[in-house]
Design a protein that fits this description.
The chain is of the alpha/beta class. Helix content is 47%, strand content 17%. Belongs to the methylglyoxal synthase family.
């Protein structure tokens, strides 16, 4: 059962398999959170771990990154896990940078790769 805490999950195209596997492997911890995710990422997470409480927003390039940014700025997102692909150019790179800027400004925990997300997980259990 999800708590009142909200976690945002996002993954670039080349990292979606990694995010789905991350969600499957860590479903016990993630099941305690309400999850918001960009469209395709949320679908992949639900395929891997259908028992999670995932609300799918728009695809990142179609405004999903901005939707999550709005949720951060209104205090509705408590942590962000964003598996970034630094080797592929993103046409919506400005949106991605704005989202990361909001996470920093509002001082929420943010993991940008698998190794950091694993380190962040124990803090999500509290």
């Amino acid at each position: 059962m999800a708590s009142g805490k909200c976690l945002a999950l996002i993954a670039h195209d080349q990292k979606k398999d990694d995010m789905a596997e991350f969600a499957r492997a860590n479903r016990d911890i993630l099941s305690r959170w309400k999850i918001v995710a960009t469209g395709t990422t949320g679908g992949r997470v639900l395929d891997a771990a259908p028992d999670l409480d995932v609300t799918r927003l728009k695809s990142g390039p179609l405004g999903g990154d901005q939707q999550i940014g709005a949720l951060i700025s209104t205090g509705e997102v408590d942590a962000l896990i964003f598996f970034v692909d630094p080797l592929t150019p993103m046409p919506h790179d400005v949106d991605v940078k704005a989202l990361m800027r909001l996470a920093i400004v509002y001082d929420i925990p943010m993991a940008l790769n698998h190794a950091t997300a694993i380190k962040l997980l124990p803090t999500l259990e509290a």
